[in-house]
Design goal:
The complex is a heterodimer of chains A (about 240) and B (about 190). With about 240 residues, chain A is mostly helical. Chain A has 2 domains: about 100 residues, no CATH class; about 90 residues, Cytochrome Bc1 Complex, Chain D, domain 2, CATH 1.10.760. Chain A contains 10 helices and no strands. In chain A, helix 2 packs antiparallel against helix 3, helix 7 packs across helix 10 and helix 9 packs across helix 10. With about 190 residues, chain B is mainly alpha-helical. Chain B has a domain of about 130 residues: Cytochrome c oxidase, subunit III, four-helix bundle (Four Helix Bundle (Hemerythrin (Met), subunit A), Up-down Bundle). Chain B contains 7 helices and no strands. In chain B, helix 4 packs antiparallel against helix 5, helix 4 packs antiparallel against helix 7 and helix 6 runs antiparallel to helix 7. The longest helix of chain B has about 30 residues. Chain B starts with a helix and ends with a helix. The chains are: A mainly alpha (about 240), B mainly alpha (about 190).
Chain lengths: ~240, ~190
């Protein structure tokens, strides 16, 4: 700031004699802004959180100062204005300094802020049950279940003991059942069945579709998608099917 | 007859400008107290980081850019007014109002998204501060845009050109508040 400019300011003359290159200030502000946005990425990459804090808050002060001095022309204002603003900042500082121990600290030499401590505990535990995070946790879990599921091996494990490994209704455990287990290789069996009925039978058991109650309900084992996959697999035994 | 604030200058500073600085000195206490409280609470409550994760940095950054740009057009309006070019000053003020409206439109979209995801002012203390601080700031943006409209109307007719500077000073202050809100609410996570 030149002497001449100072004089103009003191005289209350407010022409464009400040010789401020506003465009240059604006470009500087934009560059600082870009740095403050990039800060967290650099901070994350290097693992130094201080970088984020400096680029965020350090730059905020620099930007604010550029705006206040050059756009608001505070550097050319009378001292009165600076003192006025400074008084306000002092009031804020006094407020923060006076209140900080009660708000920021949760314990002192002779006291504990139990409520605040409990809020931190609750908040950290509660954060795990956040709306969005719940989704994030469910999805991988569902993927694992789906990935581990295979209709053929599930059939071999669960169904084959009665319905037979090849679906002919000749499984060892089914030999003594009356009525006998369904024979999926019999075209006449399929003439009276559709997907929905097979699915219901697997999920809710034979009784739910009016056949042998000895066919147990397996709904607890499979989700809807897996039930569909089981239906498709069972249908693959149909010699008349595609 | 012109209003006394326009003609009198008992302190050596035009009274209108003194009044704007006086207003801003009181605003410093209002926003300073609010942001100071937020900072203390934030430092004392590490769990707020979970909530802060959900603010959208890119929306905040876009709005920072919009306000910085509107500050630039506001100071250019002041420059034009000093040269006595009321029409140009009015045009630049209208551009600044455009910046204010863009800011508010983006903010509405941002809040709409957040509220529809359940992040309301009553969700927890972080969101209370978030909506209070940004909301109080948004009220200042609205007030500034309305006042700028009146001043641009006069300036276009070459009247009361000194007011272009006054609204400019106020507008830069609104920008400065956002310069601090941006890192506080969006960057420090």
């Amino acid at each position: 700031m030149s002497e001449e400019n100072q004089k103009q300011g003191d005289d209350g003359q407010h022409d464009d004699g400040h010789h401020v290159n506003y465009a240059k200030i604006y470009v500087t502000l934009l560059i600082l802004f870009a740095i403050s946005v990039m800060g967290p990425f650099v901070g994350e990459m290097t693992g130094i959180k201080l970088i984020t804090l400096i680029t965020a808050f350090g730059i905020a002060f620099v930007k604010a100062n550029l705006v206040i001095q050059n756009f608001m022309h505070l550097r050319w204002e009378k001292k009165l204005m600076k003192w006025m603003l400074m008084s306000s900042l002092v009031v804020v500082a006094l407020f923060v300094a006076g209140v900080a121990p009660d708000v920021y600290n949760h314990e002192g030499d002779n006291w504990d802020n139990l409520a605040a401590k409990a809020a931190v505990e609750r908040g950290i535990a509660g954060g795990e049950h956040d709306v969005e995070e719940d989704h994030a946790e469910e999805e991988p879990a569902a993927e694992v279940a789906t990935a581990g599921f295979n209709a053929a091996s599930s059939y071999a494990m669960i169904c084959a003991s009665c319905h037979g490994a090849a679906g002919a209704g000749d499984g060892a455990a089914g030999a003594l059942l009356d009525p006998p287990p369904a024979n999926f290789t019999d075209p006449t069996f399929w003439s009276t069945r559709d997907d929905a009925r097979i699915k219901t039978a697997i999920r809710d058991g034979g009784a739910s579709v009016g056949v042998s109650p000895l066919m147990a309900p397996w709904g607890a084992l499979y989700d809807d998608e897996q039930l569909d996959a089981m239906v498709e697999y069972v249908k693959s035994f149909n010699p008349g099917g595609e | 007859m012109k209003p006394i604030a326009t003609t009198r200058s008992a302190t050596g500073v035009p009274t209108g400008r003194l009044a704007v600085w006086w207003l801003l000195a009181s605003e410093v206490v209002i926003f300073g107290g609010l942001l100071g409280s937020y900072l203390m609470m934030r430092l004392g409550h590490p769990e707020w980081a979970d909530a802060a994760m959900h603010t959208n940095t890119w929306i905040g950054a876009t709005n920072t850019f919009v306000l910085l740009t509107s500050s630039f057009t506001a100071v250019l309006a002041h420059q034009a007014a000093e040269k006595g070019d009321g029409k140009k000053a009015a045009g630049l003020l209208v551009l600044t109002i455009g910046g204010a409206l863009t800011f508010l439109a983006i903010k509405s979209f941002e809040w709409y998204t957040e509220i529809s995801h359940g992040y309301t002012i009553t969700a927890n203390n972080f969101w209370s501060f978030y909506y209070t601080a940004a909301g109080l700031h948004a009220l200042h943006v609205i007030a500034g845009a309305i006042i700028m409209g009146f001043i641009a109307w006069d300036a276009f007719r070459g009247k009361e050109l000194q007011r272009v500077e006054l609204i400019g000073i106020y507008w830069h202050f609104v920008d400065v508040v956002w310069i601090f809100l941006f890192p506080l609410l969006y960057i420090a996570k």
